Amino acid sequence: MISKIRQYRAYEDVQLVTLLVEGDRLAFDEVYERYWKRLYNDTYKRLKSIEMIEEIVQDVFSNLWTSRGKRNIQNIYPYLLTSVRYQVFMLYRKGKATPEFEEPLEHMVLSTLQADSLFNEKELKGCISIWMSLQPDKRRAVFQMKYVDEKSTREISEILGISQKTVQNQLLTSFSSLRDFLSKAMIILTVWPR
């Protein structure tokens, strides 16, 4: 049994997903071992309730197992991460949790991951790129460092030589501006023929 577990550890994600879809419990166990901690840590950035985090991660893995034959999973980790973030978004939406200040863009972008969303990933990236090109230099730099380079507000303030409060204000302004821009883009995409 130990040699079989070692064998599964050597498998690439693609092989594990194939076996998982076929109902292989050891493949599922390996996916769980490989990714549960990363998902937990990602969720902790958005929620501070250990109970909620554990429940979300458990639900995502339970759903992965019970619906294994019904999903077309290309990349397992991005699939799991999207599932976890969607669960967090649903908690925000129901008012059972509030987003941490550090992650407002994640909170907003998650709404586009719903099945009935008008945006696909390419359209969303294109809209954000257009929006960024319209922003003042400082706001664009702050946004880029926060959401592309994944720097903290403290790191950004040190790099740009501005106060952390200024960074936070720039991020809040960016968040509001981008939300308005995406809302308008969604309306245009609704009426514009594809």
Descriptive overview:
- It is a single chain.
- The chain is mostly helical and 194 residues long.
- It has two domains: 2-93, RNA polymerase sigma factor, region 2, helix turn helix motif (Rna Polymerase Sigma Factor, Chain: A, Orthogonal Bundle); 104-191, Orthogonal Bundle (Arc Repressor Mutant, subunit A).
- It contains ten helices and no strands.
- Helix 2 (13-21) crosses helix 3, helix 3 (25-46) crosses helix 5 and helix 9 crosses helix 10.
- It is elongated.
- Mean pLDDT is 78; it is low at 99-118.
Described by strand count, sense and barrel closure, the largest sheet is: none
Spatial extent as radius of gyration: 19 Å
End-to-end distance: 53 Å
3D shape: elongated
Q: What is the H/E string?
A: HHHHHHHHHH
Strand content: under 5%
- CATH domain class of the largest domain: Mainly Alpha
Please count the helical segments. Answer: 10
- CATH H-level homologous superfamily name of the largest domain: RNA polymerase sigma factor, region 2, helix turn helix motif
- Which structural class is indicated by helix and strand composition? mainly alpha
| CATH level-two architecture of the largest domain | Orthogonal Bundle
* CATH fold assignment of the largest domain: Rna Polymerase Sigma Factor, Chain: A
Number of strand segments: 0
Helix content: over 70%
Low-confidence stretches: 99-118
Top keywords for this entry?
single chain; Arc Repressor Mutant, subunit A; mainly alpha; 194 residues
Quick gist of this model?
The protein is an all-alpha fold and 194 residues long. The chain has helices at 2-10, 13-21, 25-46, 50-66, 76-93, 104-110, 121-133, 137-147, 153-160, 164-191.
